[in-house]
Specification:
By secondary structure, the chain is of the alpha/beta class. The protein contains 5 helices and 5 strands. The chain binds 1,3,4-trihydroxy-5-OXO-cyclohexanecarboxylic acid (DQA).
Length: about 140
């Protein structure tokens, strides 16, 4: 089981950015946690982060044919990007949308998610554990 975990803009600033909302765990620490969880569950995991929409589209396209599941937190592009939605649809890889914060309990504009239309599941507001839950969901063969 190969899972690609994709993080979008500003998630490299975890631990620094708005800690009251996103917590104090850094992006590097998140990656270590994801890798440790993957090792425990026998999942082959790859991690990718970019602040650029086209790079996120490229990463999704490059997963075609070699990846069983995508865990994606597109950051602010969640609420704007038809291109990321279309990339997920193009590759037809099972995907789970993750948000560290509870996007539905914040500003109204965060309630819109384009990528959700191509995802089997959304995990929102579970902090960084949401990434691990998404991996378990995909590895469990649900859906
Ligand atoms: C986020 C929520 C988005 O609205 C925001 O733009 C982010 C992070 C989250 O993980 O809670 O960058 O995706």
């Amino acid at each position: 089981m190969r899972i690609l975990v994709i993080n979008g803009p500003n998630l490299n600033m975890l631990g620094i950015r708005e800690p009251d909302i996103y917590g104090r765990v850094t992006y590097d620490a998140l990656c270590e946690k994801i890798k440790a969880h993957a090792a425990e569950k026998g999942i082959d995991v790859a991690l990718y982060q970019s602040n650029h929409e086209g790079d996120l589209v490229d990463a999704i396209q490059q997963a075609y044919g070699n990846t069983d599941g995508i865990v994606i937190n597109p950051g602010a592009y969640t609420h704007t990007s038809v291109a990321i939605l279309d990339a997920l649809k193009a590759v037809s890889i099972r995907a789970v949308e993750v948000h560290i914060s509870d996007v539905d309990a914040r500003e109204a504009f965060r309630r819109t998610s384009y990528v959700r239309l191509a995802c089997e599941k959304t995990i929102s507001g579970h902090g960084i554990n949401g990434y691990l839950e998404a991996m378990d969901y995909l590895a469990g063969g649900n859906g």
